[in-house]
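Our consortium's second objective concerns turning raw sequence data into structural hypotheses that experimental partners can test. To show how far this objective has progressed, the report includes one record in full. It was chosen at random from the queue rather than selected for favorable results. The single chain below, 370 residues long, was entered without modification.
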Amino acid sequence: MGFLSRFAAPKRVSEIFEPSVAELINTGTRLAAADRPAEALALFERALVREPLSVPAWYNRALVLGRTGRWDEALGVYARVLTLDPDFAQGWYNKGVLLDAQGQLPEALAAYNRALGLDPTWADAWFSKGVLLAGMERPGEAVPCLEHARHLGHPLAAGYLDHMQRLALNAADTAIVAHPLDLAAWCHKGRVLADFGRHAEALFAYDRALAIRPASGDAWCGKGRSLEALGQATEARVAYDQALALRTPCPRAWLYQGQRLEGYGRYDDALLAYDRALSIDPLFSDAWIRSAANLAGRGRWEDALAAYNRALALDPTLPEAWFQKGTILAAHGRHDEALPCFERAHELGFAPAAALAGELRAYLAPSGAG
């Protein structure tokens, strides 16, 4: 071997000074912040040539495409990001923002839910979900989301809630002033007050509606909801019974009926009641949870899991649903699937999940699998 052959060939200048993938991404991010999107995209593309599976490069590319109005391209890139990392909460949230802006509201809601399932303490995601639901005219679901955002310190949540409440009540009061004996106006006011947690005032509105028409199933159903929220169980049952007797499509009345039938040991009839509730409102997560518990109690495990999954798709912040899903999975030897359920339940404040999560981690540790 010759003397010179002992030394490696010198690197080309381009190799010596070629920035790393991380440097390309960081520089691209700075250029994007400086409103130089074309240069930023070029750097992200260079990073992806070097490292095609780089989630940060794909993600930052999606951000720039979205900010420059290339929404369809951005959504395609977010799909790539979330295929590479399905647990990337920020990716789900930003995908939801783009879908929301394009008017794809159910898809945006699903994306916000995925983000919140991964990070239930994210104030921006709660706020965006609440605003979306308000725009979909689902105030009963919007208000709890905005309340979550407010409790988590979102700077706009309190003002948005006040604005929503003022607009809704002003509209209801205007209708009542114009038509004091309008049954629908009084029922609407009751719903608005109940949506904002003002159940005692809602009862007054429902009673005014029932004074106009005692056979109003909507008013009885709403009254039952507010009585239930105020802890007046006997009175709520009477109101719900009136709603059912009038053949009102009242999902909460059917839910209440199912719970009562379970108390009598009539589990098949209870499940039918939950099914009736869900036929009226397929987005009624409480009914999915009661149905799941009913099915699990009778050994219909796969059906129960499917029902818990439906509930969690609607609201990924239900700790007991995560816990019960984990319990079923663990009981059937699916420990690697059960562990994240218990961990999520514990993150959401369900204390009993902590011990089971610890036991499963210890069990899985030797082999790393269930």
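The partners drew two points from this record. The radius of gyration is 27 Å. The first helix runs from residue 13 to 17. Both points have been shared with the crystallography group to help prioritize constructs.
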